[in-house]
Amino acid sequence: xxxxxxxxxxxxxxxxxxxxxxxxxxxxxxxxxxxxxxxxxxxxxxxxxxxxxxxxxxxxxxxxxxxxxxxxxxxxxxxxxxxxxxxxxxxxxxxxxxxxx
Amino acid sequence: xxxxxxxxxxxxxxxxxxxxxxxxxxxxxxxxxxxxxxxxxxxxxxxxxxxxxxxxxxxxxxxxxxxxxxxxxxxxxxxxxxxxxxxxxxxxxxxxxxxxxxxxxxxxxxxxxxxxxxxxxxxxxxxxxxxxxxxxxxxxxxxxxxxxxxxxxxxxxxxxxxxxxxxxxxxxxxxxxxxxxxxxxxxxxxxxxxxxxxxxxxxxxxxxxxxxxxxxxxxxxxxxxxxxxxxxxxxxxxxxxxxxxxxxxxxxxxxxxxxxxxxxxxxxxxxxxxxxxxxxxxxxxxxxxxxxxxxxxxxxxxxxxxxxxxxxxxxxxxxxxxxxxxxxxxxxxxxxxxxxxxxxxxxxxxxxxxxxxxxxxxxxxxxxxxxxxxxxxxxxxxxxxxxxxxxxxxxxxxxxxxxxxxxxxxxxxxxxxxxxxxxxxxxxxxxxxxxxxxxxxxxxxxxxxxxxxxxxxxxxxxxxxxxxxxxxxxxxxxxxxxxxxxxxxxxxxxxxxxxxxxxxxxxxxxxxxxxxxxxxxxxxxx
Lengths: 101, 526
Prior knowledge:
Low-confidence stretches of chain A: none
Helix content of chain B: over 70%
Structural class of chain B: mainly alpha
Number of domains of chain A: 1
Structural class of chain A: mainly alpha
Oligomer: heterodimer
Strand content of chain A: under 5%
């Protein structure tokens, strides 16, 4: 029994949506990071599924680029968080309200 | 043995000369980073600034060498077709090099004034510059994504560079979270486009679209829409602009100017290439979308700019308005519109660098003096600085005999030629609305008494021409307490940078030939 590509694509779309909605509604910056990771990995799953369906290696190599970029992004993001929250008790986005908007 | 033959990996031929400007910036940035550790004495900031300027100048020379090469042999691609070396890319290579040279001079005086030691600021700026160059030259969606991140990640850090101001860190985290969000959307868009067309290479996608008639492909259109959202965030087009005012206000002022110029250059370079050159066949699908985005971007930027009291926030909305104008050229979807957009990006990048250089100086030590009141009477206290700022603001307004006027003229003409009259009219209307807040600042500097809006009251919307001169007051004007009005210190490097931006704005406004010819050479490879 094989699972058709459509299911993988649907799963990826659902994961991507969960990530996007989570980023918009959750207030903890660390959770927002996780949501970004979820979105990127949903894109990776889509890449791999299409690569398999098209029988093309390029889609799978794209995943490596996305993974590397995601890692670099997290390093910088955590660095920024640490530098900001060193003087604060919690990591909640609502505490950041010096700038209006 | 047969297995071995399958496993042979064919490495693509790399033409190193074609990516020399990027290599110079990355290599130079790393050299600059370690140079401080090799010497056991404290290295002055000026050394790093001069080094950064020299590296950017070397990249400029390399860009001109490639330019010569392309003129002699024609455009070409390299590294397995993932980098395009064409007139379009080179115009942006030159622009980014110029941005970096000017920005290193402006940043030097800021770093000295604020006492920020070390090469980090310049290193990050150079790395971001290499990312913007790669975005312009990228010929593959994956490379565009990687280049977008090479450009964005240093910009996130630059926004949070001023660790003593709390707003700076807040700007960095806001920029980072929304930037990462937009990158994730962008990469999902790439995945969908890849699934629909079978390639991430731009010419291959274009040839696929040319040979296959696509009647209804939801995956492809969804991918295209997500790509547009990703780009929209980077170039701050409405409705993806939410981060812009906060990040502009919170980031250190020279970083704001640099970020604006660079993100607009890199973002629009890739946006124009992907949409016009690659997905040009589908223009009937994306044109209405871009049309709508251009209209809301133009109007929202101009109207919300009117009610700002903070000059950096005001210029943030102004940059949203300018993004709308650049989109007008793309929405026309003609080669004339594209050259108009490229010319606009070029001109705007120079104008905004100069404007933020002046704001950096007026901001004073601590980088906090950004209320409109700080500019009251500047024309009497420091006529030269005020005159330069006035010229830059008039350039952004689009007054004739400046480059800003020609830029607006080109994109609006392109819209009219493409028969989108509504867009042209709205663009002109938004230019008139935006003129109100530029001119308000100019009148304020020259001591004309005006109602200054405070968070959206009715006084903010009245036009500046209704004001009357307040000649009964002392030269500093009526300045509320709390605003530090001292003589603005103008160091030489920043003064030279401001002079260059003003000279470019005025000289090429009066004598447009060379710059227009240069930008008209911005042809796509295919």
